[in-house]
Amino acid sequence: MDIKVRVWRQAGPSAAGKMVTYDVKGISPDASFLEMIDVLNETLILNGDDPIAFDHDCREGICGMCSMVINGVAHGPEKATTTCQLHMRKFKDGDVIDVEPWRAAAFPVIKDLVVDRTPLDKIIQAGGYITAPTGTAPDAHATPVPKKDADAAFEAATCIGCGACVAACPNGSSMLFTAAKIAHLGLMPQGQPERDSRVIDMLQAQDDAGFGGCTNAGECTTVCPKGIPMSLIGRLNSDYRKAISKR
Amino acid sequence: MTASDFWAEGEPVVDKAAPDGPVETRWERRKFSAKLVNPANRRKLTVIVVGTGLAGGSAAATLAEAGYKVKSYCYQDSPRRAHSIAAQGGINAAKNYRNDGDSVYRLFYDTVKGGDFRARESNVYRLAQVSVNIIDQCVAQGVPFAREYGGLLDNRSFGGTQVSRTFYARGQTGQQLLLGAYQALERQIGLGNVEMNTRHEMLELIIVDGKARGIVVRDMITGEITTEFADAVVLASGGYGNVFFLSTNAKGCNVTATWRAHRKGALFANPCYTQIHPTCIPESGSHQSKLTLMSESLRNDGRVWVPKDAKDCQKPAGEIAEEDRDYYLERIYPSFGNLVPRDIASRAAKNVCDEGRGVGPGGLGVYLDFADAIKRLGRKAVEAKYGNLFEMYERITGEDPYETPMRIYPAVHYTMGGLWVDYDLQSTIPGLFVIGEANFSDHGANRLGASALMQGLADGYFVLPNTISNYLAAGPFPAVSAGDAPVVEARKQVEDRIAKFLSIDGDRTVDSFHRELGQIMWEYCGMERSEEGLTKAIGLIRALKEEFWTRVKVPGKGEELNQNLEKAGRVADFIELGELMCIDALHRRESCGGHFRAESQTPDGEALRHDDEFSYAAAWEYFGADGKPVLHKEDLNFEYVHPSTRSYK
Amino acid sequence: MAVSGALLVLFLFAHAAGNLKIFVGLSDFDHYAEWLRGLGTPLLPHAWFLWIQRVGLLVAIGLHIWAATALTIRARKARPVKYAHRPKIQGSYAARTMRWGGVIIVLFVIYHILDLTTGHLNPEGGDSDPSARVVADFAPERWYVTLFYVVSVVAVGFHLRHGIWSAFRTLGQQTTKGERRAQAIALVLSVVLVAMYLSVPFAVLTGLVD
C-alpha cells in the first residue's frame, strides 16, 4: 500500500520543530507501524537525509518504550495496543497519517519523536515501592494474600509506564500512572505500612514534575495499552483523603 | 579441520573460587571464607553496574542497600524497560509447596541434565539453593504472583518437568519481577545511594593495573563521551541473540558491553550455545524487524503439520485434504508427538521447510492447527485456555486462528554462552563481574524453561552481593583519573571508532549489514551446523566485515541523539562475535543442547554428545581482529549428576 | 472542585424546586419569593438569611472558579505545545466541555441576576412582581431570550453530568458497581434538573402559565 506520513521533525531539545510529509510506497499491510518507519528511514538514510528518531525496544508491547501519537491518538487507532503492535492493515491505501511525539511539559522532546520520560521514574522514587531490603524477607507463604486482591493488584501492575495516559490527558496529568502503582501496592498486605506516605509523596512528586491536575476527563484510560481502569484514580483519591486526614 | 586454521589452543582455565567437598555446603563455605567489607568502609567503595534487567537491577539495588556507592547505566530511557520485562512463562524455585517431591537437589539435577551436561555443578547447585530465597524476596516486594483461592502461591509445571515448581504472574512474570527489582532500585536512587544514568551506553572497559576500574560511556542524548571510575565493574548487559538480527530479543539488545570486555582480555565462553524457540510467529516479509514468541503451551493442544507435497504449499490450508497433510512430529516421534523438546521441534520444522514444504511468506513456517482441539473441546474451552495468545496472533498476522491454522516458525530466543566467570561470577579480568544472561555460568548447552528469571535474580540479589565483597575487601583501590594513560587510551579508542563510523559515508545502511549477518548466522550457525557450512560462514562474515568498514553509511553527527551511530557500534561488534560463534561451533564436533552438529547424530537423526572429548566449557581469548582466538578449556566434572542420553522417540 | 460543586448542585435543586411554584399559581410564586426574604425572621432581620445564602453561594462559586482556573493554568503549563492533529473526542463529550461550559454558565448567571433578580434587563423593570418578570421574559416575541436560557440550562446539564460523576470519583469512588451508580446518579440528576428548569419557560412560551 502507498501512504503519506506527516511526522514531527525536531532536530534537538531547543530547536523549533515542524510537521514534514513523506511518501511511503509499497509498504506491506503486514508490516507493523514501526517497521513502516524503519523502511522509511532506510530510504531517508540512502538519500542523505536525517532518519526519524523514535523510541522503541521490545516491539512486543511490553517494554513501554514506543511512544507515538498517531492521528492525534496516543499509540494510534487500535484499542489496548501499543504502537509497536499496531499494523499497517489498520490503515487504508492512500491515507495521510500524522505522527507526533507525546506532548507534555514534563516530557520534553529530545529529538523528533523521542521524549524524556524520566519524571515517571521520579514519581516511583518518591514512594512507588515496598521497602524490603534483600535478605529481610520472611517465607513467601508467611502472609497469604486473598486471590481477589492478588488478581486486582496484578491488573494494576500491568501498567507498562509508557506515558500514553499523559499524552492523551487534556490536562497533561499522570494520574492514571500514579494511581496504578498506588493500587498495585496498596492491594497487597505487604504494601500497608507505607500506604499513607506513599500516596502523599507520590502525588507531591507528580505535582513537582510539572504534570497537570486530574479532572477525571477519562481520556487516559481510552488510550491505555493495558486498559488500566479509571476507577483506580478514585482509589488513589480515597487513599489520599484518608492519608491526609491522619496527618 | 585442524585447530591451526581458525583457532589456537592455550592453557586450560580453572575456576579457583569454587570450594570442593560436598556440593550441598559449597555455597555456605564460600560465603564464610569470603572476606567481608566493614559497613563503614562500604560507602568509600564504588561499583559500576551496566544494565538494569533482573540481574543488573537487583544487583544495583542490593549493593546500594548494603551501603556501597553504585553507578548504574542503561541504554533505555528507564531502568524498567530492560528486556527481562518480556519474559512470559515463570520462575522456577525449589519450594516444594506442592509436596510433589521437589527439592533443591531435584532442581539441581534437572538443570544439569537439561543443560545437556555442559554446566558447572557447583554453580547450578547454588542456583537451586538460592531459588527459594528469590520467591520470598519478590513476595516481600509486592510482586503479584498468581495465587490460589486460599491465598497461597500457585505453581505450575513448565517445560516438561515432573514437578510443579514454576511461580508465575499470568503471562507477564518477567515484567512483574522486573518491576520489583526496579522499584527497589528506584528507592535507592531516591535515597541518593545509586546514581542512575539512563540513555547511556557503555562503549569500552577501562583496565588500570590489570584491574577493571571503569567504563567509557556515551550519553545517547548529547553524544558526550565520559569516563566513569569505580572499584569494581559489573556487567549485566544481557544476551546476544540479536546477532541473528531476527530474534525475540528487544531491538536494542546488544553484545557491546561484554564484547568490549572480551577484547580487553575477558574470556568468552561457549558462544555457540543458542536456544531456539519453536513457537514464534513467522516472518511476514522483508520489513520484518523482530520475532514474537508465543507460549509453548500451545503445543499441548495444537497439531503441527505441513503439506506432504511441496506443490500444495501455496494452497489455503483448508483446501488441503487430511490425507495430504504430514503431521511430522507425530510421525517421527510417536510417543512425544507435538510435545517434543524445544530443540527437536525447532529442527524438525527447519527440516520440512528445507524440503520446500514450508507454508506462508517465503516458505518459512509450519501449521499449528487447533481444528481438532476445537472439535474435541469446543471453541469455548480453547478460547478459555489460549484466548489471549490467539488474540495476540491475530493482532500481528491479521489471521483468525480459530478459522485458519496458526503459522509458526522457530526463532532465536536466548543465548547460554557469555563471558566466562568463576564461582564468584568474576571474569578473567580482576574486578570485572558478569551476571545474568551476560555470563555463561549456569545453563550449560541448553536452558530449561523458567530458569532465566531464576538465574538473573539469583545472581543479582544473592550471589554477586556476597562474592563481590571478597574482591572489594582489598579496596578502595588507588584513585583513577581521566588523565591516566589507560583511561586516555580507552577514551581515544571510543572516539576514534565513532569518528571512523561517521567518516566512511558509504552506500549501505547499518541495518542492511545487520540483516545480512543475521541471514548468514541463521543459515549456517542456527538450528543445524556443519563443518562445511560453518567454514563457509566464517568466510562470508569476514567478507561482510570488510565491506562494513568500507561501505557503511552512518548519517548525522556524534554529538546528538543518533540511533544509527548506536546501531553501527553494536553491529560492528556483532560481526566479530558472529565469527567467534562460528569458530566455537566449528570446534565443537558434537551435538549438545542448543548446538546441533550435522556430523554428530545418531543413525535416526538425534543429537549425539561426545563426553569423552567435549565435556568442557570452551572459553575463548581474543587475539586481535585478524588474530586467531585462543581456546582455553575448563574441564567439567560431574560428581553428582552423571551424563546420560535423552530420548524422545 | 468536588465540595464547592456539591454545594452549588444543592442550591440548583432548591432553586429549581422554587421555580416550580409557578405552576401552582402566579401569586403563589410571588408569595414564595417574598417568603424567601422573610426566612429566618425574626431571629434575623428581613432578607438577611437570603443574603447569608447569597454570600455562601458566592464563596462556593469563587472557590469553584478559582480551582477550575488553577487546574486550567496547570493544564496549559503541562502541555505548552499543542498537538497538530487532535481528534475531537476520546473521552466523553461532557468531560471535554467542562471549561467552556463553565464560562457559558457564568455569563448566563450574570445575565440571569440582572434580568430576574434585579430586573435591570427585564422589560417589566425591577419593581414588578417576580412572576410578571418571568412571564415577560419568555414571551414568544422574545424567543431569543428563551433560546439563550435553554442553551445555558443544557450547558448546566452537561456540566453536571460530568461534574457530579467526577465529584464522586474525586471523593474516592472506586468500584465498578459504584462507578455505574455514580454515572447513573449524575445522568438522572442532570436530566431532572434540566427538565425542571426548562419546564417554566416552555410553560410560558406555550401559554400554560399566563
Automatic annotation (TrEMBL), chain A:
InterPro entries: 2Fe-2S_ferredoxin-like_sf (IPR036010), 2Fe2S_fd_BS (IPR006058), 4Fe4S_Fe-S-bd (IPR017896), 4Fe4S_Fe_S_CS (IPR017900), Beta-grasp_dom_sf (IPR012675), Helical_ferredxn (IPR009051), SDH/FRD_Iron-Sulfur (IPR050573), Succ_DH/fum_Rdtase_N (IPR025192). GO terms for molecular function: 2 iron, 2 sulfur cluster binding; electron transfer activity; metal ion binding. Keywords: Iron, Iron-sulfur, Metal-binding. It holds the Pfam family Fer4_8. Its cofactor is [2Fe-2S] cluster; [3Fe-4S] cluster. SUPFAM superfamilies: 2Fe-2S ferredoxin-like, alpha-helical ferredoxin. Residues 150-179 form the 4Fe-4S ferredoxin-type domain. GO terms for biological process: aerobic respiration; respiratory electron transport chain. Coiled coil: none annotated. Belongs to the succinate dehydrogenase/fumarate reductase iron-sulfur protein family. This is Succinate dehydrogenase. It comes from Actinoplanes utahensis.
Automatic annotation (TrEMBL), chain B:
The keyword Thylakoid does not apply. It comes from the Bacteria. InterPro entries: FAD-dep_OxRdtase_2_FAD-bd, FAD/NAD-bd_sf, Fum_R/Succ_DH_flav-like_C_sf, Fum_Rdtase/Succ_DH_flav-like_C, SdhA/FrdA/AprA, Succ_DH/Fum_Rdt_flav_su, Succ_DH/fumarate_Rdtase_cat_sf. Its EC number is 1.3.5.1. The keyword Membrane applies. GO terms for cellular component: plasma membrane. It catalyses: a quinone + succinate = fumarate + a quinol. It is found in: Cell membrane. Its main location: membrane. Belongs to the FAD-dependent oxidoreductase 2 family. FRD/SDH subfamily. This is succinate dehydrogenase. Keywords: Cell membrane, Electron transport, FAD, Flavoprotein, Membrane, Oxidoreductase, Transport. The active site is at residue 342. Residues 47-453 form the FAD-dependent oxidoreductase 2 FAD-binding domain. It is an enzyme of class 1 (oxidoreductase). GO terms for biological process: anaerobic respiration. It is a peripheral membrane protein. It comes from Actinoplanes utahensis. Residues 514-648 form the Fumarate reductase/succinate dehydrogenase flavoprotein-like C-terminal domain. One of its GO terms (molecular function) is flavin adenine dinucleotide binding. Its cofactor is FAD.
UniProtKB/TrEMBL annotation, chain C:
One of its GO terms (molecular function) is metal ion binding. It comes from the Bacteria. Keywords: Heme, Iron, Membrane, Metal-binding, Transmembrane, Transmembrane helix. It is found in: Membrane. It holds the Pfam family Sdh_cyt. Its main location: membrane. The chain crosses the membrane at residues 48-73, 93-114, 143-164, 185-209. InterPro entries: Cytochrome_b-558, SQR/QFR_C/D, SuccDH_FuR_B_TM-su. One of its GO terms (cellular component) is membrane. This is Succinate dehydrogenase. It comes from Actinoplanes utahensis.
